[in-house]
User: What shape does this take?
Amino acid sequence: MRSRIIFIAALIMGLVTTFLFYNYMKQYNDTKSANETMVDVVAAKQPIKRNQQIQSGMLEMKQVPSLGLHPQAVNSVKEVEGKFADADIEAGEVLLSHRIKASADEAAVVSKKVRDGYRAVSVGVNLVQSVSNLIEPDDDVDVIVTVPPKDDARLESSTVLLEKIRVLAVGRRMVEVDDKHPYAEYTTVTLEVKPEDLPRLVNADERFTISLALRTRVVTEGEEP
Assistant: This one.
Protein backbone atom coordinates (compact mmCIF):
# COMPACT_ATOMS: atom_id res chain seq x y z
CA MET A 1 0.00 0.00 0.00
CA ARG A 2 2.78 2.36 0.91
CA SER A 3 4.64 1.61 -2.35
CA ARG A 4 1.49 2.42 -4.31
CA ILE A 5 1.16 5.79 -2.56
CA ILE A 6 4.80 6.59 -3.30
CA PHE A 7 4.31 5.64 -6.96
CA ILE A 8 1.23 7.84 -7.32
CA ALA A 9 3.00 10.75 -5.60
CA ALA A 10 5.99 10.39 -7.92
CA LEU A 11 3.69 10.31 -10.93
CA ILE A 12 1.92 13.47 -9.81
CA MET A 13 5.23 15.24 -9.18
CA GLY A 14 6.42 14.22 -12.64
CA LEU A 15 3.30 15.65 -14.26
CA VAL A 16 3.62 18.87 -12.30
CA THR A 17 7.29 19.19 -13.24
CA THR A 18 6.50 18.58 -16.92
CA PHE A 19 3.74 21.18 -16.87
CA LEU A 20 5.95 23.77 -15.20
CA PHE A 21 8.79 23.12 -17.68
CA TYR A 22 6.42 23.34 -20.67
CA ASN A 23 4.91 26.58 -19.36
CA TYR A 24 8.37 28.07 -18.80
CA MET A 25 9.56 27.17 -22.33
CA LYS A 26 6.38 28.59 -23.85
CA GLN A 27 6.87 31.89 -22.03
CA TYR A 28 10.56 31.90 -23.05
CA ASN A 29 9.74 31.34 -26.73
CA ASP A 30 7.00 33.96 -26.67
CA THR A 31 9.38 36.48 -25.10
CA LYS A 32 12.12 35.61 -27.59
CA SER A 33 9.77 35.98 -30.56
CA ALA A 34 8.49 39.31 -29.28
CA ASN A 35 12.02 40.66 -28.83
CA GLU A 36 13.40 39.31 -32.13
CA THR A 37 13.89 41.95 -34.86
CA MET A 38 12.27 41.29 -38.24
CA VAL A 39 13.69 42.73 -41.46
CA ASP A 40 12.36 43.09 -45.01
CA VAL A 41 14.11 41.13 -47.75
CA VAL A 42 13.45 40.40 -51.42
CA ALA A 43 12.22 36.90 -52.27
CA ALA A 44 11.22 35.17 -55.49
CA LYS A 45 7.47 35.13 -56.07
CA GLN A 46 7.95 32.45 -58.74
CA PRO A 47 10.76 30.15 -59.93
CA ILE A 48 13.51 32.08 -61.75
CA LYS A 49 15.79 30.21 -64.12
CA ARG A 50 19.52 30.69 -64.47
CA ASN A 51 20.35 33.47 -66.97
CA GLN A 52 16.75 34.73 -66.84
CA GLN A 53 16.35 38.50 -66.59
CA ILE A 54 14.71 39.47 -63.32
CA GLN A 55 11.58 41.64 -63.46
CA SER A 56 9.83 43.30 -60.54
CA GLY A 57 6.73 41.14 -61.07
CA MET A 58 8.80 38.05 -60.23
CA LEU A 59 9.64 39.39 -56.78
CA GLU A 60 7.96 40.09 -53.46
CA MET A 61 8.99 41.50 -50.10
CA LYS A 62 8.89 39.26 -47.04
CA GLN A 63 9.87 39.60 -43.39
CA VAL A 64 12.41 37.28 -41.84
CA PRO A 65 14.23 37.28 -38.47
CA SER A 66 17.41 39.34 -38.51
CA LEU A 67 19.14 36.73 -36.39
CA GLY A 68 21.02 34.42 -38.73
CA LEU A 69 20.08 36.39 -41.87
CA HIS A 70 22.56 35.91 -44.72
CA PRO A 71 24.75 39.05 -45.04
CA GLN A 72 24.23 39.13 -48.82
CA ALA A 73 20.42 39.03 -48.66
CA VAL A 74 18.90 41.63 -51.00
CA ASN A 75 16.56 44.15 -49.35
CA SER A 76 15.54 46.29 -52.35
CA VAL A 77 13.76 45.28 -55.56
CA LYS A 78 15.54 48.05 -57.47
CA GLU A 79 18.86 46.44 -56.57
CA VAL A 80 18.13 43.38 -58.74
CA GLU A 81 15.49 44.50 -61.24
CA GLY A 82 16.74 44.13 -64.81
CA LYS A 83 19.70 41.97 -63.79
CA PHE A 84 20.21 38.26 -64.45
CA ALA A 85 20.01 35.22 -62.20
CA ASP A 86 23.32 33.39 -61.94
CA ALA A 87 21.59 30.23 -60.63
CA ASP A 88 18.12 28.71 -60.44
CA ILE A 89 16.05 30.44 -57.74
CA GLU A 90 13.03 28.71 -56.25
CA ALA A 91 9.75 30.42 -55.35
CA GLY A 92 9.93 31.86 -51.82
CA GLU A 93 13.73 31.83 -51.79
CA VAL A 94 15.48 34.97 -50.52
CA LEU A 95 17.63 36.58 -53.21
CA LEU A 96 21.35 36.82 -52.50
CA SER A 97 23.49 39.44 -54.22
CA HIS A 98 26.25 36.99 -55.19
CA ARG A 99 23.72 34.98 -57.22
CA ILE A 100 22.75 38.01 -59.35
CA LYS A 101 24.68 39.42 -62.31
CA ALA A 102 24.44 42.88 -63.75
CA SER A 103 23.47 43.19 -67.40
CA ALA A 104 26.96 44.48 -68.14
CA ASP A 105 28.36 41.12 -67.06
CA GLU A 106 26.24 39.40 -69.71
CA ALA A 107 28.19 41.10 -72.52
CA ALA A 108 30.75 38.31 -72.27
CA VAL A 109 28.27 35.82 -73.75
CA VAL A 110 26.63 36.75 -77.04
CA SER A 111 23.76 34.28 -76.62
CA LYS A 112 22.55 36.37 -73.66
CA LYS A 113 22.40 39.48 -75.85
CA VAL A 114 20.15 37.94 -78.49
CA ARG A 115 16.55 39.02 -77.97
CA ASP A 116 13.74 36.49 -77.92
CA GLY A 117 12.54 35.73 -81.45
CA TYR A 118 15.87 36.63 -83.10
CA ARG A 119 19.01 34.78 -84.15
CA ALA A 120 22.71 35.73 -84.26
CA VAL A 121 24.63 35.23 -87.51
CA SER A 122 28.07 36.44 -88.57
CA VAL A 123 29.06 37.82 -91.96
CA GLY A 124 32.52 38.42 -93.34
CA VAL A 125 33.64 41.99 -93.98
CA ASN A 126 36.76 43.87 -94.96
CA LEU A 127 37.82 47.39 -94.01
CA VAL A 128 35.61 49.03 -96.63
CA GLN A 129 32.58 46.80 -96.10
CA SER A 130 32.66 47.52 -92.33
CA VAL A 131 32.79 51.32 -92.75
CA SER A 132 36.52 51.35 -92.01
CA ASN A 133 35.97 49.17 -88.90
CA LEU A 134 34.00 52.03 -87.33
CA ILE A 135 30.92 49.89 -86.64
CA GLU A 136 30.45 49.17 -82.94
CA PRO A 137 28.31 46.66 -80.98
CA ASP A 138 24.71 47.87 -80.58
CA ASP A 139 24.92 50.00 -83.73
CA ASP A 140 22.19 49.61 -86.37
CA VAL A 141 23.17 48.90 -89.97
CA ASP A 142 21.60 48.29 -93.36
CA VAL A 143 22.84 45.18 -95.17
CA ILE A 144 23.60 45.72 -98.85
CA VAL A 145 24.26 42.86 -101.24
CA THR A 146 26.18 43.38 -104.49
CA VAL A 147 25.63 40.86 -107.28
CA PRO A 148 28.38 40.56 -109.92
CA PRO A 149 27.40 41.41 -113.50
CA LYS A 150 26.04 38.75 -115.83
CA ASP A 151 27.45 38.19 -119.30
CA ASP A 152 24.99 40.65 -120.80
CA ALA A 153 25.48 43.38 -118.18
CA ARG A 154 28.32 45.81 -117.60
CA LEU A 155 27.56 47.03 -114.11
CA GLU A 156 27.19 45.29 -110.79
CA SER A 157 23.81 45.40 -109.09
CA SER A 158 23.54 46.45 -105.43
CA THR A 159 20.38 46.04 -103.37
CA VAL A 160 19.45 46.77 -99.77
CA LEU A 161 18.79 43.29 -98.39
CA LEU A 162 17.93 44.16 -94.76
CA GLU A 163 17.36 47.44 -92.97
CA LYS A 164 18.06 48.59 -89.43
CA ILE A 165 19.76 45.42 -88.22
CA ARG A 166 21.29 45.42 -84.75
CA VAL A 167 25.01 44.64 -84.40
CA LEU A 168 25.74 42.19 -81.58
CA ALA A 169 29.51 41.95 -81.96
CA VAL A 170 32.44 43.00 -84.11
CA GLY A 171 35.02 40.24 -84.27
CA ARG A 172 34.91 38.81 -80.73
CA ARG A 173 34.19 42.15 -79.05
CA MET A 174 30.64 42.53 -77.76
CA VAL A 175 30.90 45.94 -76.09
CA GLU A 176 32.03 49.36 -77.23
CA VAL A 177 35.69 50.30 -77.02
CA ASP A 178 36.77 51.36 -73.53
CA ASP A 179 39.71 50.92 -71.17
CA LYS A 180 38.90 47.25 -70.61
CA HIS A 181 38.01 46.50 -74.24
CA PRO A 182 40.59 48.10 -76.55
CA TYR A 183 40.09 48.56 -80.28
CA ALA A 184 41.15 45.74 -82.59
CA GLU A 185 40.56 45.32 -86.32
CA TYR A 186 37.94 42.75 -87.24
CA THR A 187 36.87 40.78 -90.29
CA THR A 188 33.46 39.56 -89.09
CA VAL A 189 30.35 41.28 -87.78
CA THR A 190 27.65 39.40 -85.86
CA LEU A 191 24.12 40.57 -86.62
CA GLU A 192 20.78 39.99 -84.90
CA VAL A 193 18.15 39.00 -87.46
CA LYS A 194 14.73 37.41 -87.65
CA PRO A 195 14.74 33.64 -88.38
CA GLU A 196 13.02 34.18 -91.73
CA ASP A 197 15.87 36.49 -92.85
CA LEU A 198 18.63 34.00 -92.05
CA PRO A 199 18.61 32.04 -95.36
CA ARG A 200 18.73 35.19 -97.50
CA LEU A 201 21.56 36.70 -95.47
CA VAL A 202 23.66 33.53 -95.36
CA ASN A 203 23.11 32.90 -99.07
CA ALA A 204 24.10 36.47 -99.93
CA ASP A 205 27.20 36.30 -97.73
CA GLU A 206 28.38 33.04 -99.36
CA ARG A 207 27.62 33.91 -102.98
CA PHE A 208 27.93 37.67 -103.29
CA THR A 209 29.51 40.72 -101.62
CA ILE A 210 28.05 42.03 -98.38
CA SER A 211 28.47 45.66 -97.30
CA LEU A 212 27.15 47.36 -94.18
CA ALA A 213 25.81 50.90 -94.08
CA LEU A 214 25.94 52.49 -90.62
CA ARG A 215 22.79 54.22 -89.36
CA THR A 216 22.71 57.09 -86.89
CA ARG A 217 22.07 56.50 -83.21
CA VAL A 218 20.56 59.96 -82.86
CA VAL A 219 16.77 59.82 -82.61
CA THR A 220 15.06 62.96 -83.89
CA GLU A 221 11.75 64.25 -82.57
CA GLY A 222 8.79 62.23 -83.88
CA GLU A 223 11.00 59.35 -85.04
CA GLU A 224 10.70 55.90 -83.52
CA PRO A 225 13.94 54.72 -81.82
Summary: The CA atoms of residues 142 and 222 lie 21 Å apart. Helices lie at 2-35, 198-207.
